[in-house]
Amino acid sequence: MTGLKRRHRPTHNQTRSGFSLIELLVVMAIIAILVALLMPAVQSSREAARRTQCRNNLKQIGVAIHNFHAQEGALPPSRNYDHYTSWAFLILPHLEQITLFSSWDASLKYYYQPDEARLTHIPMYMCPTRRSENMASKRGDDIFSPLETSGHVPGVLSDYACSAGFGAGWNWIDSRGAMIMGDATTDPPTIPFGNYAPPGAKLVTWRSRTSFRDLTDGTSQTVLVGEKHVRPSRFGIAQEDGSIYNGDHPGNFSRCGGPGYPLAKSPTDRFNNNFGSYHDNLCNFLLGDGSVRSVGVFMSTDILGRLTIRNDDEFVGEY
Q: Burial letters for 51-69: b for 16+ Cβ neighbours within 10 Å, e otherwise?
């Protein structure tokens, strides 16, 4: 018939190409399986990088402490005196923070320092596995004295603490640590009982009590600084995680080891003054020789205690 077009049946080569629903589901399932297989490896790699950064932080802190010793002939004290500042501020010039250090009036108590001095973030003081953002204390950094009162005065936080020595019961501020409280004089003089500085008192002089020669067990056998245990619910709360610069609250800037003070096994362990980290089963420590060691959280309290004592004349072997 003329005028009519002949309809052709489509050949195999002319069939429309595309994926069926089943094929798409299979591809998506394969991708999901691959992602599930790769994620643990990616997370493990990221944590390894964070753990390395944490060790590098401690290494730089160690360099700063050694430079402080070279300049002053002594180790930085855990705090130069009650109410004043701690080791973490005293070593800032050796962490390339001279301007920040200069903004602090060394004669005044922590509570009367300018905001710039108290609140400037120091990334090197934060473990990236636990936290890395700029955080300040939110409660408890009040003056600790029956002679004077103050509201909360916030300051920067840190995931590291110096060793206060061998803990036993609640007597955890032990004079056998490598970095202990310094000797100082104030004007007006402090009250003999409790070393309380009167209102308006200014720090006149201070000095450290220890140097490397006092680490008679050996620098490689003595902890200077380690990761401090802080429960997530206590972030920013003094006496566990207050301002690292506030020398009024030892729980802010120091930790101890030994009987009653094991390494925290997990972030939620109910300890206040123990070393501990957010790394899986490991905690990093800076030793007196400048080396950084990662130790298992199941280390015996006896060995940990031996490492926090500078002069017990007991050698610690492999650990």
A: bebbbebbebbbebbbebb
Q: Are 78 and 250 in contact (CB under 8 A)?
A: yes
Kindly report, residue by residue over 104-160, the tens digit of the pLDDT: 999 999 999 999 999 999 999 999 999 888 889 999 999 988 888 889 999 999 999
Q: CB neighbours (10 Å) of residue 191?
A: 14
Among 171, 276, 284, CA closest to 223: 284
203 has which bridge partners?
186
Going by C-alpha positions, the residue among 122, 97, 262, 255 that lies closest to residue 178 is 255
Tracing tokens 């300890």 back to the chain, one arrives at 271
Each residue's pLDDT tens digit, 68-101: 999 999 999 999 998 999 999 999 999 999 999 9
Using CA atoms, how far apart are residues 274 and 50, in angstroms rounded to an integer? 22
Q: What is the pTM of this model?
A: 0.85
Task: Return d(Cα 115, Cα 23) in angstroms, integer.
Answer: 62
Give how far the C-alpha of residue 151 lies from the chain's centroid of Cα atoms, to the nearest Å: 25
**Between the CA of residue 265 and those of 17, 212, 296, 308, 309, what are the distances in Å?**
58, 31, 9, 18, 22
Spatial distance between the Cα atoms of 153 and 160, rounded to a whole number of angstroms: 20
**Residue 3 reports pLDDT greater than 60:** no
Q: Is the pLDDT of residue 35 over 80?
A: no
User: Which residue has tokens 């089963």?
Assistant: 281
How crowded is residue 93: how many other Cβ atoms within 10 Å of its Cβ?
17
Contact 226, 285 (CB under 8 A): yes
Compute φ and ψ for 202, nearest 5 degrees. Answer: -120, 145
Identify which of 219, 11, 182 has the alpha carbon closest to the alpha carbon of residue 82: 182
Chain position carrying tokens 């090197």: 124
